[in-house]
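Weekly puzzle thread! Below is a chain. First person to post its structure in token form gets bragging rights.
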Amino acid sequence: MMTKTHAWSGAALWLTTTATFHVDPLLAGAGTIIAWHAARLPDIDNHDSAPARQVDRLVPGLSTWLETCVGHRGLTHWGISALASGAMFAVLFAAITPQLVWFGVALGLGWLAHIAGDCLTWQGAPLFAPFTFRPIRPPYGYRFKTGGTFECAVIRRLMKIWAIVAAAMFVYISL
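Winning reply:
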């Protein structure tokens, strides 16, 4: 999927979680920003992606190095990487104050939203690696092309609608 679609899916999943678990509004807002960017993060292993170009401004050559070492949709696209990173940051943030554990959850959910989105594409993603490196993807007729008309016209709009509805639910529940 494209960067914008990933970002919207991460925000939508996080906002749904905040509405479900009645997260503090300030934490929900900050977590939305974290989930938005975490959903873009796994593509730093592809030097042609927007997140990789942004990271390369800070650390030149990092995305090319990652792509050489793990390949695109390698380690950064494993479900266990998302869970481990989310858990690690949850523990680090909780050491500051227990309420901030939600930031680690936001990071993990955003990252998982990215991987789930890539599992819907032609190439799929190795969600269950390192246990099996077989990419998870829908049956042949149900996959879509990354950056294709279906993704941009339908999937991205559905992610935006989901995020807006989840935000509205959060506001309604918080009142």
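Puzzle host: Confirmed. Bonus trivia for everyone else. Residues 3-174 form one domain.
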